[in-house]
Amino acid sequence: MTTQLPGDALVSLNAVNKHYGQLHVLKDINLQVRKGEVVVVIGPSGSGKSTLCRAINRLETIDDGDIAIDGKQLPEEGKELARLRADVGMVFQSFNLFAHKTILENVTLGPIKVKGVSKAEADKEAMALLERVGVGHQAPKLPAQLSGGQQQRVAIARALAMKPKVMLFDEPTSALDPEMINEVLDVMIQLAKEGMTMIVVTHEMGFARKAADRVVFMADGQIVEDATPEEFFTNPQSSRAKDFLSKLLTH
Amino acid sequence: MDVIIESLPQYWDGFLRTLFLAAVSGIIALVAGTLLAAARVSPVAALRGFSMAYVEVVRNTPLTIAFFFAAVVLPRLGVTFQQFEIAAIIALSAYTSAFIAEAVRSGVNSVPVGQAEAARSIGMKFGQVLSLIILPQALRTVIPPMINILIALVKNSSVAGAFYVLELFGYGKQLANDHGDAVMWVLVGVAFFYLLITVPLGYLAHQVERKVAIAR
User: Fold this and answer.
1) Rounded to two decimals, what is the model's pTM?
2) Would the CB atoms of B122 and A114 count as touching at under 8 Å?
3) Which residue of A has its CA nearest to B141?
4) What is the ipTM of this complex?
5) Helical H runs in A103-204?
């Protein structure tokens, strides 16, 4: 049992389980994320951290347990789910910008079609967001004309345009060339400073140290540790975490 | 060769009717086929089942059956036509829509799944994901197979000639009867007028394809 009241948590997962056939990918996951908190999820590949992230806006269904966002249970497929997803920003490893739309349209499509914002207003807000992530001058281009780092920053702007309550990042820098990683992390660090609630699946330990309030370490579908970055990196409790960190830090 | 020059008015009339049959059936088939493809990927099981059954039955039976159905069975069910052209259009568009549906479905499958996930993540409903994100990308990738289907439709419309519609092939039969000594030239003329539709269609496809291609 958690000591927090359920109403306290913006994102709340209780006893969540998921299987892929025989494989038990999420084992009895309990996780509460408060408003304004930045939670970094790390762990070896195959540990279930991406699945966890995707389950929070139901891109992956779960077998049992429950997930609530701002006190509301994730609904089944349909209108209600669409409405709830509009409040949860998602940034993917592979950017997933709409390939046939311009950069500006990528950002304005959600506000216009989902929220019913006027085109003029959506354009104005989108340009401000694109400026903020440093790609304002790319607005009329198509996604394929941008570098990976630029595309990912547009993807962040697209998610922010919906004014989400929480942002999910599913390995946002894993598909990027090394020299482009920082430009994306800088945007994320800025976002964290501004008080955005964030759940970030990443391998970037530097980001975890700099911006995270909590580090959640997953292995084999379980949450093994849940600690502050300071505690986790200097004094990991479990042998799995010690093993994982030793492999990272020796290189 | 004189027979072609002599019969130009008939050829022209037949050409226009073939063009009309193909254009109207083509437009109906494009719309119906896209709807069938949408049904095939929808979350509603009944729609998926209907679409699959329709496509499998229609795609795997001869066009002539569709024509007999429209010409013989529909009137018995109380659907009668003033002109047989209407029945021909029903048969051709019903038949062609099954092929269009399969082409569009393959296009939908070619759009990376991340596109739909991103669209759902910003709160779009199924219909919006499909109409704003998936179909616009899917349709661009299926232009070449789509044009093949439309070219086949133009040629398939000749079956209507066997059902007393005076399109190109219908006139061809008539002219061949009237000019028994010049059947070969009559048929060359018919072929020429078919090519007049199908060759530009292929050229158009090439142009459109180049124009709307999207880089990833």
Assistant:
1) 0.86
2) yes
3) A100
4) 0.90
5) 103-113, 119-132, 148-160, 178-193
